[in-house]
Amino acid sequence: MKILLVAATKAEIEPFLKHYSFGDEVPSEIIIGNNQLNVLITGVGMVATAFSMARVFSEQHYDLAINAGIAGSFSSSLPPGEICLVNEDTFAELGAEDGDKFLSLETLGLGKSTYFPIISNLLPVQESTRKVKAITVNTVHGDELSIQKIIDRLNPDIESMEGASFFFSCEQYQVPSLQIRAISNYVEKRNRDNWQIQTAISKLNDYLIELIKL
Length: 214
Prior knowledge:
CATH topology: Rossmann fold
Radius of gyration: 17 Å
Number of domains: 1
Distance between the termini: 11 Å
């Protein structure tokens, strides 16, 4: 099976790369068991993700694409270190303002802003993995008023800066997809002392190693 592993930054999947002795450079292609794996580091944000994935998908066919990364949690039931599987992701800022109301692309009749994975059973994820609703943003939330507004409007479980672009790209090329996120922090007023990025990365990569080797 040919798999594309997508991450915004090398740091988010570096333990996975080191586990397979990849060295300092991200490999273009490796073999793990019966799987051929390509690694794509897109850069941070939805624009970089969509561009990088379109370039790769236009050149090669993949049986499965996996987006792996960290995310912020809106819920105390998703603490730092928790692994979750995204089953819905929305471009939270894509639309228009009408006074104090937000109009989505769906409301405007201009398309859609919510995307879903193309389901595949090629790599079965653990049944216990939490299924979550995500939003994708250009600016991560760090203000109490804006946090409450996005909760009232979309009630997301987590947020990232790439997830919906990943699903969008996979949909355009009809590639089965998985988005796996590890919680690194709560979405709150910005407080780096509360972040647990290394814990999240460690948990994420342990999960990836077990998943890919199947």
